[in-house]
Amino acid sequence: MERRPTIVDVAREAGVSKSTVSLVLQQSPLVREEKRVLVREAMDKLGYVYNRSAANLRSANVGLIGLVINDLRNPFFTEFATSLQMALSARGYATVLANTDEDPAIQAQVVSAIIEHGVSALIISPAYGEESATFDAIARANIPTMQVLRKVDPRVETFPFAAPDYLSGSRLAAEHLVRGGAKRVAFVGGLEGRAVAQERMSGYFEVMAEAGIEPFVLSGRASRAFGHEAAAILTRDHPDIDAAICFSDLVALGLLSGCARIGRKVGEDFRIVGFDDIEECAQVYPPLTSVRCDIAGFGKDVASTVLDWLEDSQAPISEHRTPVELIVRDSSNGGLHA
């Protein structure tokens, strides 16, 4: 996406000062008609649109960034949003934050409202479904926009994408369990057909193929409730499965509590690895092994990338993955070391 033309671009094209352009935009009678015509012609040629609310924000020395999150109830997304907002604030930018609750209709509504507020850029962790209603509106507004954590619009040249390296994360988790002696490993959680679920499974599938272990996927919502339910399903219907990689830490925490309820000893009889490494992983019993995405650091990186795009016209690369690591704790170690 090309950057939006600025008042400086209009002044250069019209051959006048930036102050003259500002006076024209404010409909000041101090500007002679011939210069007013030059400025208007330059605006038309460049496609410059005067946004009064954004101009008011600039006059207060504050920029406005839109941040749209698919599920703020999930601590993973909350930590990302908090880290990002604080990093933007440190650079003098305010944040308009909206939660879509995984509803594409709400997403389209809040994105439209945020655009009307004259944001300088958008950062969106999108909901799935009816993506065009959201992203076509953003494209028409010509606002610099990054997709983060999930990629739902394939136009990454227009909407660059950044996320942790999910494939490597699930590979690390699967290798750890196989190396520790797991005979049959399940992947638990994540809805079928969702790209992010496929990415988080991909390394798992690779390692199972290499180890000659038949994969088993138990799909479901990324929630504690599903994880809790999965403990009984795996124990009752698939007693040969002795380890699980979970789509997210919420699923893993639910699986952990479900195993406790039915008396299955996690870390000995059954091993569990989560994904995201939210704060609670180190505080539960037994402590939960998880793929750390450094989501706080990721939020800071995204803020820096977007502001470089705005302030220095350094457009992001179309797709960027950040490194992950496996944090081994008692839920998977079984007395062994990674």
UniProtKB/TrEMBL annotation:
The keyword rRNA processing does not apply. Residues 5-59 form the HTH lacI-type domain. Pfam families: LacI (PF00356), Peripla_BP_3 (PF13377). It comes from the Bacteria. InterPro entries: HTH_LacI, LacI/GalR-like_sensor, Lambda_DNA-bd_dom_sf, Peripla_BP_I. Coiled coil: none annotated. SUPFAM superfamilies: lambda repressor-like DNA-binding domains, Periplasmic binding protein-like I. The keyword DNA-binding applies. Keywords: DNA-binding, Repressor, Transcription, Transcription regulation. Signal peptide: none annotated. PANTHER family: HTH-TYPE TRANSCRIPTIONAL REPRESSOR PURR-RELATED, LACI-RELATED TRANSCRIPTIONAL REPRESSOR. This is LacI family transcriptional regulator. It comes from Rhizobium aquaticum. The lineage of its organism: Bacteria, Pseudomonadati, Pseudomonadota, Alphaproteobacteria, Hyphomicrobiales.
